DNA sequence: CCTACCGATCGGTAGG
DNA sequence: CCTACCGATCGGTAGG
């Protein structure tokens, strides 16, 4: 492959990623319908027409982001590598790692909420079909190897785990700029995980 | 007051509510920016210009809905009246009642998500300031009168309760139209509440 | 990849 | 409460 063509491909990829990143930033701020193609073009540093060399439509940008930027690729290895001698330690550490990651990079949770709010979850079904088979085994393994679990239904265990993470992040979004923030204890994350752990794990007797 | 004027006021109120209901339905389907004033007018059964006799702007419709339709007025009395001899029974029943109500009438949860997605929570702070003082006492009373609570921080207890309800409803929205729905046990609600209860309440010894 | 343009639709208003 | 209209902006495209 001649160097010229190679560079052109590279540049095309770079521009495509710049468009995606600009779109993420704007979608997070104003939602999907609240963001215009002209805004995306401006933030990505090119003219409106230039976007259409990389994406057929606005909707295609959103779909590409949903697929390309899904956090499970980043999170799954981290969860598997989570340390912890006992079951309690492992699950607790995994929960804290996931929450910290998604709190510091909340774009994907917001994109998921945009999906629900503005697309009625129309992309969601296909996404779950692709991702669930990769996450579910983690919880199936948990159920099999750990003896002190109160919840032994893998799908339910997965749902409750994801739900707990979402509930922390979403209530955090709601509270962040309100008076309640002052009254929230500093160790809210630990307390939150603690509630979940006691809910899922049998008390040592 | 003459009957004529009285009827006019009544009619004005009716139209206003028709506009609000039409807007809720459309906001739920397409979000705020995805809904046009013309769509709202059509669904409410009047001309575009007619809306502006009742609301100054599109934004004012959304604000009015957020305030007028808030479910805490409906939910708070129900929670207070919830039966249950033991602490466990009371909290469990309250959770089930709230979840069932919000699942059958999910418009407010969706409006809340629209708030987060499309307004960055700009109306949220004022709303919390108004509502928190009315909900928080319920949890403060719980902490004071019940001895077997593991979580004795009222704000945290409230956050975890609301978070648990939200997490059930949002994961339900996500799963509803996917393959996962088939693998979800029928008693998911009870199991969900059970996890929370064991997380919050001390085991009887 | 940009310039210049398309028809459609947007939120909102004047006047009656 | 409706009709008719405003300027602005929308997603997208043709042509180079």
Question: In words, what does this structure look like?
Answer:
- Two copies of one chain form a homodimer.
- Chain A is mainly alpha-helical and 205 residues long.
- Chain A folds into two domains: 3-63, Homeodomain-like (Arc Repressor Mutant, subunit A); 70-198.
- The first copy, chain A, is built from eleven helices and no strands.
- Chain A has helices at residues 3-30, 37-44, 48-51, 58-68, 72-80, 87-104, 107-119, 124-145, 154-175, 180-183, 188-200.
- In chain A, α1 (3-30) packs across α7 (107-119).
- The longest helix of chain A is centred in the first third of the chain and has 28 residues, at 3-30.
- Chains A and B meet through α7, α8, α9 and α11 of A and α7, α8, α9 and α11 of B.
- Chain A binds a DNA duplex (16 and 16 nucleotides) through residues 15, 36-38, 46-50, 52-53, 57-58.
Average pLDDT figure of chain A: 90
Question: Using DSSP, what is the number of strands of chain A?
Answer: 0
The domain tally of chain A reads: 2
| Biggest interface, chains and residue tallies | A-B, 57 and 57 residues
SSE string of chain A: HHHHHHHHHHH
User: What spatial form of chain A do the alpha-carbon principal axes imply?
Assistant: globular
**Uncertain residue segments of chain A:** none
End-to-end CA span of chain A: 67 Å
What is the number of helical segments of chain A per DSSP (H or I, 4+ residues)?
11
Biggest sheet of chain A, in brief? none
Oligomeric form: homodimer
Radius of gyration of chain A: 20 Å
Secondary structure class of chain A reads mainly alpha
% residues in beta strands of chain A: under 5%
Question: Could you estimate the helical fraction of the residues of chain A in percent?
Answer: over 70%
């Amino acid at each position: 492959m001649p160097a010229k063509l190679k560079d052109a491909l590279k540049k095309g990829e770079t521009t495509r990623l710049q468009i995606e990143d600009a779109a993420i930033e704007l979608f997070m701020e104003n939602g999907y319908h609240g963001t215009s193609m002209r805004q995306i073009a401006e933030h990505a540093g090119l003219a409106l027409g230039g976007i259409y060399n990389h994406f057929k439509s606005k909707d295609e940008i959103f779909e590409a982001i949903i697929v390309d930027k899904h956090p499970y690729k980043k999170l799954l290895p981290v969860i598997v590598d989570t340390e912890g001698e006992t079951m309690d330690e492992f699950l607790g550490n995994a929960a804290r790692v996931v929450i910290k990651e998604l709190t510091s990079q909340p774009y994907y949770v917001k994109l998921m909420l945009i999906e629900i709010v503005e697309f009625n979850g129309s992309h969601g079904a296909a996404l779950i079909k692709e991702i669930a088979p990769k996450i579910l085994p983690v919880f199936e393994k948990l159920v099999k190897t750990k003896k002190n679990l109160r919840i032994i239904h893998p799908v339910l265990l997965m749902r409750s785990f994801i739900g707990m993470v979402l509930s922390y992040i979403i209530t955090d979004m709601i509270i962040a700029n309100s008076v309640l923030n002052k009254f929230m204890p500093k160790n809210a994350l630990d307390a939150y995980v603690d509630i979940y752990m006691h809910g899922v794990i049998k008390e040592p007797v």
